[in-house]
Amino acid sequence: MSVQVRAYRQSDLKDMIRLWNEIVEEGAAFPQEEFLDDESGAEFFSEQTFAGVAEDNGRIVGLYILHPNNVGRCGHIGNASYAVFSSCRGRHIGELLVKDSLEKARQFHFSLLQFNAVVENNVHARHLYERLGFVPLGTIPRGFRMKDGHFENICLYYHTL
Question: I want to staple 77 with a disulfide (CB 3.0 to 4.6 A). Which of 13, 69, 89, 145 is the partner?
Fold first, then answer.
């Protein structure tokens, strides 16, 4: 696999927006319901502490965003979201993104990385997080409304950096 993770460039935005919107459209992972357009997408990604992309032979196959989970006295806790194009899943791209985000979180002086809303039925992501040392904090019953309207539990995780 020749996938490399790097900081995003302006030239990546079209693919990043398309990928973000694919996850929003699937309605099974991100809490957002609004799609990004060229303007809102450029603003959204530029506002992150860090936005990285996974590139495979010049093609964007995944991305992640990293930012504070909270402000002020809790600003040392980071949060991240990950996305891999559906056509590229199963190739361990997510693992590369998560590992890179842990390194970047350290570089940006976060001391913890916390995930607030991992959908319980997203077993691949949960297994990955736990294998990489994330600690489950608990479950919020019916915390995520799926695209079809039913509710799934969400799991909270943290990783000390």
Answer: 69
Contact residues for 103 (Cβ-Cβ < 8 A; gap 6+):
none
Q: What is the pTM of this model?
A: 0.96
Q: CATH number of the domain at 15, please.
A: 3.40.630.30
Which contiguous run of DSSP H or E holds residue 14? helix 13-26
Phi and psi at residue 33, to the nearest 5°: -115, -15
What is the number of structural domains in the chain? 1
User: Residue 53's pLDDT is what?
Assistant: 98
Q: How many CA atoms within 13 Å lie on the side-chain side of 40? A: 7
Give 98's contacts (C-beta < 8 A, 6+ positions apart): 64, 80, 82, 128, 129, 132
Strands 77-84 and 112-119, bridge-based pairing: parallel
